């Protein structure tokens, strides 16, 4: 089909083309994609949430007085999250996802402190990149504090020492995305409260599942509003609440803190713009879909899903530890595992990722950073229950294949070329040369094997890697 046909195609043909396009995507169901997607494995849930989304897709949450159904559903989502996270009186907002929730938490904190000459946010080095984005967008300086080199948890004393008169917010993770560990929130919050600084807990990935994991016996550290000093928490519903993509909740302990994220504009001839989020128009579809998921699954259902996930995490971790020369980084508290190679291993984890993809699994490569070596990220969901042994067998086979292939070697001249690149002055010709070295010249698209590309990126400093990937993104999004 053409981008815009002269004469419209019939509905059946349009859907057939869409199914054909989707067939090339990484699968979103069945537990074989261990990043980006969250699958409950519950029969009928997709159909229910799709129907709910359709019923409200054309309603606009921009004006809660015109579409009161959306206001009611959003308030229900906020109330459920607030109850789960330790403060039924907390107020909140539904957003489009975890990044928007984190952005708004930073914005609200900055607006609360107009006296701060150079507002800063103090966060552990493992805090999500959403806070880097917030700093970039809102003119805030992000102070990243080193974490413990072996546990990857934030250090409360270092965090407290990094705060000053211009610190508008302190951040903790529950858990961190890279390693799945919960920061010591009680200690971080207590130190910040003594200084009058609010604390945001980024529980986007863990906020919904951690309370249920605790109820099924997992030793989950305290991280919610029960800790004095915690002023806001973000929790994504499109993760372990298993709603479709597009819904997160940002909670505030005090209504006054939420006011800073709101935006109003009346000085123009149109309607008075009033926004609760970064968006103006907001489709009611994601809100209705999330509301339907919560109503259908219920508390008992989420408890069972957490039990299944907890068992899957245990068995997958045990399987990883049976594979020679692999190890799990840190001591994960939740549903995320970071799998690294032991020092001196004679294989390449980027090749292991390719081999796993050949076997029908997607595991997410993560580059080395500080004391965290190259590793493979695994997001485990309820749908992984029952396939743990197959995953472990395939992982063991992938390591054998990677060992046989040997580590990917970067040509010395390519490594030297990368070392000399200036991310601020990267030219089109230099970028084209790297694409050619990676086998992607002339719009060839992604290669079948990503290990050579990842090894090349691993040789680039973070700032250069950012610039290279931004340029590559521009190449991908060309009609």
UniProtKB/TrEMBL annotation:
GO-annotated biological processes: carboxylic acid metabolic process
UniProt entry keywords in alphabetical sequence: Aminotransferase, Lyase, Pyridoxal phosphate, Transferase
Keyword hit for Lyase: yes
Q: Which residues carry this modification: N6-(pyridoxal phosphate)lysine?
A: 239
Q: Spell out the SUPFAM superfamilies in the cross-references.
A: PLP-dependent transferases
Instruction: Tell me yes or no: is Nucleus among this UniProt entry's keywords.
Output: no
Q: Which residue ranges traverse the bilayer?
A: none
The cofactors required by this protein are: pyridoxal 5'-phosphate
GO terms (molecular function) for this protein are: aromatic-L-amino-acid decarboxylase activity; pyridoxal phosphate binding; transaminase activity
Q: Kindly give the Pfam families that the UniProt entry links to this protein.
A: Pyridoxal_deC
**Family, similarity comment:** Belongs to the group II decarboxylase family. Sphingosine-1-phosphate lyase subfamily.
Name of the protein in its database record: Aspartate aminotransferase family protein
Q: Which organism is it from?
A: Saccharopolyspora montiporae
């Amino acid at each position: 089909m053409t981008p815009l046909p002269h004469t419209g195609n019939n509905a059946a043909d349009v859907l057939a083309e869409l199914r054909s396009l989707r067939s090339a995507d990484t699968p979103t169901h069945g537990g074989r994609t261990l990043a980006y997607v969250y699958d409950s494995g519950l029969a009928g849930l997709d159909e229910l949430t799709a129907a709910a989304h359709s019923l409200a897709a054309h309603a606009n949450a921009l004006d809660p007085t015109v579409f009161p159904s959306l206001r009611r559903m959003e308030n229900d989502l906020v109330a459920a999250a607030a109850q789960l996270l330790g403060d039924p009186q907390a107020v909140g907002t539904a957003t489009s996802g975890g990044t928007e929730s984190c952005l708004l938490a930073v914005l609200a904190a900055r607006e609360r402190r107009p006296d701060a000459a150079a507002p800063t946010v103090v966060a552990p080095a493992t805090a999500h990149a959403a806070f880097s984005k917030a700093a970039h967008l809102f003119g805030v300086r992000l102070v990243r504090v080193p974490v413990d080199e072996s546990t990857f948890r934030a250090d409360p004393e270092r965090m407290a020492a990094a705060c000053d008169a211009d610190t508008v917010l302190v951040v903790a993770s529950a858990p961190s995305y890279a390693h799945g560990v919960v920061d010591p929130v009680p200690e971080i919050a207590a130190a910040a409260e003594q200084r009058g600084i609010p604390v945001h807990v980024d529980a986007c990935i863990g906020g919904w599942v951690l309370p249920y994991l605790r109820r099924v016996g997992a030793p989950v550290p305290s991280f919610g509003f029960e800790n004095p000093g915690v002023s806001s928490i973000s929790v994504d519903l499109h993760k372990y609440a298993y709603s479709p993509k597009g819904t997160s909740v940002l909670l505030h302990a005090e209504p006054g803190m939420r006011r800073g994220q709101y935006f109003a504009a009346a000085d123009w001839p149109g309607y008075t713009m009033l926004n609760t989020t970064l968006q103006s128009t907001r489709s009611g579809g994601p809100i209705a879909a999330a509301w339907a998921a919560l109503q259908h699954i219920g508390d008992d259902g989420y408890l069972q899903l957490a039990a299944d996930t907890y068992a899957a995490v245990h068995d997958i971790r045990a399987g990883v530890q049976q594979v020679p020369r692999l190890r799990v980084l840190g001591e994960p508290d939740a549903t995320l595992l970071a799998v690294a190679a032991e020092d001196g291993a004679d294989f390449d984890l980027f090749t292991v990722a390719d081999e796993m993809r050949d076997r029908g699994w997607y595991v997410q490569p993560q580059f080395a950073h500080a004391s965290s070596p190259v590793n493979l990220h695994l997001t485990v969901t309820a749908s992984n229950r029952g396939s743990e042994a197959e995953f472990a067998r395939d992982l063991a086979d992938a390591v054998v294949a990677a060992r046989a292939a040997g580590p990917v070697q970067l040509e010395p001249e390519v490594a030297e070329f990368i070392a000399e690149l200036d991310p601020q002055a990267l030219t089109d010709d230099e970028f084209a040369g790297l694409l050619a070295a990676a086998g992607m010249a002339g719009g060839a698209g992604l290669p079948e094997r990503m290990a050579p590309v990842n090894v090349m990126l691993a040789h680039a400093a973070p700032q250069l890697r950012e610039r290279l990937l931004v340029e590559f993104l521009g190449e991908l999004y060309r009609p």
